[in-house]
Amino acid sequence: MRTLFSLIAAVCAGTLSVSPLQPRPVSLVVANGIVVTENQSRRVIQRGAVAIDGRDIVAVDEAEAIAARFTASERVDADGGVIMPGLINTHTHAPMVLFRGLADDLALMEWLQKYIFPAEAKTVSPEFVRAGTRLAALEMIESGTTTYVDMYYFEEEIARATREAGLRGVLGETIIQFPVPDAKTPAEGIARAERFIEGFADDDLITPAIAPHAMYTNDAATLKACRAVADRLHAPVIIHLAETKDEANGSQQKHHKTPVAYLDSLGFWGPRTIAAHGVWLTSDDMRVLARRHFGVSHNPESNMKLASGWARVPEMRRAGIPVGLGTDGAASNNDLDMFEAMRQAAFLHKLMTNDPRAIPAPVAIDMATIDGARAIGMDREIGSLEPGKRADVIVVSMRAARQTPLYDALSHLVYVTRGDDVRATIVNGKVLMRDRRVLTLDREAVLTEARAMAARVREAVRPGGGK
Amino acid sequence: MRTLFSLIAAVCAGTLSVSPLQPRPVSLVVANGIVVTENQSRRVIQRGAVAIDGRDIVAVDEAEAIAARFTASERVDADGGVIMPGLINTHTHAPMVLFRGLADDLALMEWLQKYIFPAEAKTVSPEFVRAGTRLAALEMIESGTTTYVDMYYFEEEIARATREAGLRGVLGETIIQFPVPDAKTPAEGIARAERFIEGFADDDLITPAIAPHAMYTNDAATLKACRAVADRLHAPVIIHLAETKDEANGSQQKHHKTPVAYLDSLGFWGPRTIAAHGVWLTSDDMRVLARRHFGVSHNPESNMKLASGWARVPEMRRAGIPVGLGTDGAASNNDLDMFEAMRQAAFLHKLMTNDPRAIPAPVAIDMATIDGARAIGMDREIGSLEPGKRADVIVVSMRAARQTPLYDALSHLVYVTRGDDVRATIVNGKVLMRDRRVLTLDREAVLTEARAMAARVREAVRPGGGK
Question: Structure pTM?
Answer without folding.
Answer: 0.95
